[in-house]
Amino acid sequence: MHFRYLAWDDRFANNQSDSPFDQLWNLFQELLTITGGDVSEALNWLTELDRDYDITDEFDDYNVGDFIEELAERGYIEYDEEQNQIIITKKTERSIRQRALREIYRSLQKGGEGQHKTDFSGKGLERKPESRKWQYGDDIGQLDSTGTMMNMLKHSSLNQFDLREDDLQVYDTDHYTSVATVLLIDLSHSMVLYGEDRITPAKKTAMALSELIMNNFSNDSLDIVAFGNEAWRISVSDLPYLKVGPYHTNTQAALQMGRHLLQRKKFKNKQIFMITDGKPSCMIENGQIYKNSFGLDRKIINRVLDEAVKCRRNQIDITTFMVARDPYLQNFVEELTEANKGRAYYASLDNLGEYIFADYIRNRRKRVR
Predict the structure, then answer these.
(1) 17: confidence class by pLDDT, cuts 50, 70, 90
(2) I need a labelling partner for 326 at 20 to 30 A (CA). Which of 133, 143, 190, 284 fits?
(3) pLDDT in tens, 73-104
(4) pLDDT score recorded for residue 168
(5) pLDDT at site 207
(6) In the predicted model, what is the mean pLDDT of the chain?
(7) How much is the pTM?
């Protein structure tokens, strides 16, 4: 074996993940999530951070201007003539979703990717150790050759092997199921009140969940519904751009839309994930908005609970992820959970995504109240 030594090339001094572009790119994606996909605002924030904390001082001949040029060269931003502004591209939207997924996965245990494992036997990927008699329709690819041979030898002789249908043994596999999910995201003004940014982690979770389903659970379905004064469907590509509006919280409309969407799905397992600060404050009555922002109005609460019962009758589980700690709001969530026989998580803003994904991958095996 011979070694050939060459002159040192400074390009290999740093790992690609530590390059100036990648360091700024990671920060820029976080700022895009917070600003709702507003490129100009995110770049202004990045410039201010660089000015205040000298971020680019550690880079050799690389500044925010160079970063912006490289963003365009790599196809992460482009100029939209109709909007007369710089916007992010589809490539950036997907990168933000993937980043959110990686961020949440760091705190999750391994396992569960690809399918939702159940306690039943059937068609699946993971083979059980025991085998059983073959039945019509069983996958012959799961044949237990040793067990089949032993059965055949019981009625065969040294001169003639006599293989019969009853001799065939096949391995069972763990049964995997598919799930139809509707994710509800509260965009009411209270999601940014009281000195807490509740909407950014909610958006991250939604983006990560969508990326997970599209890449690892291809047989599942995901619909996303935003709600404020009313409820409306959004697409995966809309997620980075979500912003809290001057809205009240129409929880009843959100649950109703989720139920209607799931009723059209031909899935045995149906569920609603709702991220909210837990305070229903309006509903639609006779075509008009009835609202009460000063407490938990019993009229509004009862309408929400009625919808939760309808979901239960349609075998739709509701999992509420509460991002507020007010005791009286938690009491409402308890009522909602009891009405639906679902579950509730009182998650902090730091572990919101962890709770959602741990529950999703386990296929809702564990109830936490």
Answers:
(1) low
(2) 284
(3) 999 999 999 999 999 999 999 999 999 988 87
(4) 85
(5) 94
(6) 84
(7) 0.75
Quickly tell me which residue has 């040192």 as its tokens. Answer: 8
Three-state secondary structure along the chain?
A: CCCCCCCCCHHHCCCHHHCHHHHHHHHHHHHHHHCCCCHHHHHHHHHHHHHHHCHHHHCCCCCHHHHHHHHHHCCCEEEECCCCEEEECHHHHHHHHHHHHHHHHCCCCCCCCCCEEEEEEEEEEEEEEEEEECCCCCCHHHECHHHHHHHHHCCCCCCCCCCCHHHCEEEEEEEEECEEEEEEEECCHHHHCCCCCCHHHHHHHHHHHHHHHHHHCCCCEEEEEEECCCEEEECHHHHHHCCCCCCCCCHHHHHHHHHHHHHCCCCCEEEEEEEECCCCCEEEECCEEEECCCCCCHHHHHHHHHHHHHHHHCCEEEEEEECCCCHHHHHHHHHHHHHHCCEEEECCCCCHHHHHHHHHHCCCCCCCC
Domain 177-361, CATH number (from 3.40.50.410, 3.60.21.10, 3.40.1160.10, 3.40.50.150): 3.40.50.410
